Amino acid sequence: MTDSIERRLIAAGGSTRKGLVTAIVLGFGGGMATIVQAVLLARIVTAVVLYHTSWTSLSQDLIGLVGLFFLRSVLTYGAEVAAYHAAAAAKVSLRKSLLQHVFRLGPAYLANERSGELAASLLDGIETLEPFLARYLPQMALVVMLPMAILAVVFRLDLISGLVLLVSGPIIPLFMVLVGHQAEAINRRQWRKLLSMSAHFLDAVQGITTLKLFGRVRDEIELITRISDDYRRTTMASLRVAFLTSAVLEFFASLSIALAAVLFGARLIHGDIGFFSAFLVLLLVPEFFLPLRALATHYHARMSALAAAQRVFEVLDAECPMRWGTALPPPGPLSIVCDSISIEYRKGAYAVHDVNVEFPSGSVTAIVGPTGAGKSSLVAAILGFMAPSAGRLLIGNILPLTSVDRDAWWRLIAYVPQSPRLFAGTLAENLRLARRDADATAIRNALARARLLDDVDAMPLGIETMIGTGGSGLSAGQVQRLALARAFLKDAPILVLDEATAHLDLETEAEIVETIAELVRGRTSIMIAHRLATVYRADRILVLDCGRIVESGNHSALMARGGAYARLLNIKSRATACAT
């Protein structure tokens, strides 16, 4: 699994191949400049120490040495910049792919996920990949190229020194492989702890009202403290392995350099090697181990990236619940046909089973039934958030939904849920979710049709008034009207209302019912409803029970029949009477 994840990470970096190749070329150029710099330095020292050459006669070598110093600095800087630009581009591409795939997966997938974990993967997880892409991948190439170039020079100068480097060099990668398994396990555990902490902290913040009312704030703080301390311990264990690994690798590198120095000292005394060759090799030996030591330093970045990428690729590999095509649906009001559709929420357990029904063009259809009857699942399938396990959905009686372009289908739908989602921002920004190019006149017209314009005009900044996340600063009725204003602004031929009057008092409900009556006019409308006020005006009412349609007809006919619909309304009427 680790190899597979690493290959996919390398492929993600390959999408910015030009930047990474540039970083490698510049890094190799800097390494070659170091070799030439060492040659010039050895020549200068040999000439001054052994032959007492004047500094004037060495001016060209000195100028070359200074020039190479600046060239090496520029190449190193350029390599860093190119690598980080490539890593940034790869992060943006991967984050965009992850976000787009999450949107494709839709609410059905997100209902089983913790928002904090997904947010941590989308932000911190992908950010963790930067050191791997910017440092580890280029270093993987340089760790082969630069030592081989230095080894070629050393072998030309001295065979014994070349053999010493050839034998001692692979010790560092070998040791990295030996400690890699332990480091990888620790990093995976560390990343799981971080995801758990992020998810739990977000849950605690979102549920702070419930925690305070039940007096569990102190318990929750203690739990978060334990989770945080557990994460701290795991992080320290990961750093301990990283630091110990670096220390041991530095020890092996220093030991090899010392061994080469001792050999040169003994051979210089016996006259087996010249001063220039010995001094040059001693200058090159640290540079030989430098790419290997740098790779060891960045090896920890590889472990962290693999741990984070595992969760990222799990989300990317999740199968989309709905397959889409490229066909464009016909314009105008459309009919929707459910042709023997069934929806499984687990093997053999059906939320909707063998439903055959048509939602005629321009009609208003209400779907009622007890909790768990399958109402929301049926609507989710029509919206394209869930795929039927059997049967098919037809648009205009002929075009299967699976052959329709997803975005084109969603452009035809206006959706008003029972708990509308409002984002922190202005009222105008929240309304423009329905139509990006809507001007102030169109927004005010939609607010007027939703019976909300007077309330908005009474606010200090009108449509530019800021609201908080979830509609903080607005009443429940205002939030619901704002959702209806979105639907007016979008002006789509298909309208889906999911308990649009839930959680409202009777007076506010009556006002919104009048707004809904205007909104559904001329559209193919499907509404999930429990209350009589939003049902009795419907052209047709479908009664679902245990995932099947048990009754169908208008309000008067179903009440006269005295079946499931009448019993359902009688129960609700008694419950309302008891509540009042």
Please write out the topology:
Blueprint: H1 2-14, H2 17-49, H3 59-110, H4 115-127, H5 129-157, H6 159-168, H7 171-206, H8 208-213, H9 217-270, H10 275-317, E1 336-346, E2 349-359, E3 364-368, H11 375-383, E4 390-395, E5 399-400, H12 406-411, E6 413-416, E7 425-426, H13 427-431, H14 440-449, H15 453-457, E8 466-467, H16 476-490, E9 494-498, H17 506-519, E10 524-528, E11 540-545, E12 548-553, H18 555-561, H19 564-579
Parallel strand pairs: 3-10, 3-11, 6-9, 9-10
Antiparallel strand pairs: 1-2, 1-4, 4-5, 7-8, 11-12
Helix pairs in contact: 1-10, 2-3, 2-5, 2-10, 3-4, 3-5, 4-7, 4-10, 5-6, 5-10, 6-9, 7-9, 7-10, 9-10, 14-16, 16-17
